[in-house]
Structure formats: C-alpha cells, structure tokens
Amino acid sequence: MRILLIEDDPQAARYITRGLREAGHVLVVANNGADGLSMASDEEYDVLIIDRMLPSMDGLSIVQSLREQDNHAPVLILSALGDLEDRVSGLRAGGDDYLPKPFAFEELLARVEALGRRPNQGNVTTHLTVADLKMDILGRKVQRADKPIVLQPREFRLLEYLMRHSGQVVTRTMLLENVWDYHFDPQTNVIDVHVSRLRAKIDRDFEEPLLYTVRGAGYMLREPE
Q1: Which domain holds residue 23?
Q2: Any idea what DSSP says for residue 170?
Q3: SS3 content of the chain, % helix, strand, coil (to 5)
Q4: Cα angle at 125 between 71 and 4, to 5 degrees?
Q5: DSSP letter string over 31-86?
Q6: Residue 122 within any structural domain of the chain
Q7: Are 202 and 140 contained in the same domain?
Q8: What's this model's pTM, rounded to 2 decimal places?
Q9: Cα(72)–Cα(187) distance, rounded to whole angstroms?
Q10: Are 114 and 1 spatial neighbours (Cβ–Cβ below 8 Å)?
Q11: What is the pLDDT of residues 117-169, one digit of tens each?
C-alpha cells in the first residue's frame, strides 16, 4: 500500500516508517499539518496516518478539510489523547480509526492493513490512460495500442507516477521521493537507467513517443502533439 504519514515527532516517524517499509508498504512522510494536507490533497494514498497534535495545523482539522474536499482515503489518527471523549471526537471529525499513544507496532500495522482492505467510498482511480497507453492498476497490466507491455515492479511504479502526472514536468526529486522512497539524492544514475528501460518498452515499437526528457528539469509523459 501507499501510505502518507503526517507526524512531527522525528523519532516516532522513523519508527513507524521503518516498520511499515519492512512490511512491504510505501511510505511518504510530512512533518507538519500544512504540508500534510497539501500532500494528501495532491496525491492518492491507500491509507493516511495522521498525528492529532501537529504544528501549523492539527490532525483533526486536516481530516475535516479532506472530507470537505470529498477525499475519502481511510484515516488512522494517532494521539497521546486517549480518553473516550478524545477518541469520539477524532472519529466524528472524519477519522476511520483512532490509536492512542504509546502503541505496539504490531497493532498499528494490523489497523493500517485493515483500513487498506476497506473499499474507498470516494472515486478510486483504477485505470490510467495517456493517448493509447493504458494501465490497469489493480490488475497490474499495461498495454499500448492493445499490445501488452511487461514491466518490472519498479518500472510499473515509475510509469504509474508519470501517468498520474501526465502533461507535467516530473523532477528527479519527485521520482526519488515517490517511486524510490529516497529523501536524499543517492548521486547515482538509477533514475536514468529505469527511464531508459521504460522508454524502450512503451515507445520503441510505436510511431509516436510519449515519454520525453525535459532538459535540466526532469521528465514528462504526454500525448503526442
């Protein structure tokens, strides 16, 4: 699953991030409420984990804002406030589950995975299309002009991200953080290698290219002019 964690405590964020990544999930982290709301609004996530007490904007306000935007991504609220009244207020604000601190990681993982199994009541994107390139996210299938394209898992994630941002310049930093889960530049050519492999699979045997390099900026997947 792709999970957004909004947590301002660095130690707690590292603990949760490490554990969920070891369990096979993709983590994106925000350390304040304003950034967290922006990231939750701009991208799609399978589950949101939101600390209740945050700088710039508290967790309940984030949840309320998302629900007003018709964003129905499942939300697990974390809080040191664990009284019945606090839990009820969190759920009434739009949270789907509430976990008081301190907690056992096994319980957090079980709750997150349970939320991820729930059907999202909002508009869930399961298919992406750019020109004649089509992706079935749930079926993990890609085809162009009705020709199947076999992708490795990382190539699939890379293409999915590019398709979700079709017509936009996608920078190296965006790819490192959202496809490779790096929050630093490893100073390798890993992105160039994967983009080259992906381009060979989706463009080489077709008349019109879809994947472009934007010199000095990044990459763009777009329909032919």
Answers
A1: 2-117
A2: B
A3: 40, 20, 40
A4: 50
A5: SSHHHHHHHHHHS--SEEEEESS-SSS-HHHHHHHHHHTT----EEEEES--SHHH
A6: no
A7: yes
A8: 0.56
A9: 37
A10: no
A11: 766 545 456 789 999 999 998 788 999 999 999 999 899 999 999 998 999 99
